Amino acid sequence: MHSHISEESKSELGGGQGPRHVSHPEEVDFVTDPTLPGGPGPSHQSIVTEEALGRTHETPRSISPIKIIGAGWNICQSWTGVAATMAISITQGGTVAVIYGLLVIFVTMGCSAATLGELASVYPTAGGQYHWTSILAPKDMSRGLSYVCGSLNILGRIASTAGVVIIPAQQIMAIILFFDADFTPHPWHYFLIYQAANILLLLNNIFLLKETPWIHNAGFMNSLLSFFAIVITCLARSTNKQTSEFVWTTFINESGWSSDGVVLLTSLNNPNYMFGGFDGVLHLAEECSNAATAIPRALMSTIIIGFVSSFVFVIAMLYSLSDFDALLGTITGTAFNALVGTGLLLQQLTFAFLAALILYSKRNEEFLPSSRPFKLGKFGWIANVVTLAFAVLVLVFYNFPFVLPVTGGNMNYTSNVIGCMAIFMLLNWLFHAMKGYKGPRIVQSYTELSL
What we know:
The structure is a single chain. By secondary structure, this protein is mainly α. It has 16 helices and no strands. It has one domain: Up-down Bundle (Amino acid/polyamine transporter I), CATH 1.20.1740. The protein has helices spanning 3-12, 42-52, 65-76, 78-91, 94-120, 129-136, 142-179, 187-208, 215-237, 244-249, 260-267, 291-320, 324-328, 334-360, 379-397, 414-436. The chain is globular, with a radius of gyration of 22 Å. The two termini are 29 Å apart. 45% of the residues are buried.
């Protein structure tokens, strides 16, 4: 993991005083100083903002605007996320839930990305959501809200990462079963492969990631090439194509819920997974050149490319589907479902913090100066409201059971995981962070903000 992310994580959970930056814009003036590190020109833009936020730049800016877009794509891997959860959506609403769920998520997460992008163009800092919460929140609530938002962000990232690393284990076991139908997989098989993947990724992040920034571009190209290879091969080799009526209008409710509306809303969990962790590029801001413009572009590019690739993949797979009953019989572990749901829910809550605070400030130029590179204009109101409303929907329906009647084997454990995390956050606050977490601090005074 990048070193600056570790420091932010430590601060968010109350370990130390946190990044030293501005609590409230009205308390600090800013200055344009061409002698600051970075000099004049486009790259100076984000460094001046970082200095104004009270931070000293320590990490080399080795990630170009193009590479940060590749990093955003690699973090989400949208079409592979949809592929991993597609079987769940089929049983929870059929092809209707899969296709139109993607459209709903594209709109809602697009609004969330726009909300984040606007703030990133003003405050391009690796702290992301918790940092911005401390700036936007009323003074007497700033420290507490930033702690909650930061904790949700870190815990959501842990859940999302744990869910992602399960996928290689599932894929490897699926390949084994394909070539050896008599093989009987056991939970410990999945667990060992899962931990091996964890260790390999950990070693890569510790020893190789900083020395191999090209890996973002390589991963981006590998994913796109794999996407085209799978889509083209499936369409070319499948003999009995499904009808358009089946692909676009089939609704299936095998969940046990009597309300089709509940089924559709709970099924959003699965297409939502294509954008799990897409805010990760925010936390690379201090390693990215010209971050004030590059980060918003990376966010929006991730949403657009992710949706297009996922939509094309889903349509191709549905038309190529030959054994629909086998797909309906696919079993996805409850642990995977709980981790996915937890990560997505906590992620959206951090977005809601920001949307609510922006709306509370009535999108005041005190927080969103008109000179910012990424401006939403009047659409900003819509984007903020949609982001907040979707968080409310997610908070309710992502905790619902997937299947009725509920048993220990099919229960949605998202609420249990979140409950444990909430207890941890509360105890950490009471016994440590209440005194140990200082939150943002003012360290310098300037006369004018330069963007």
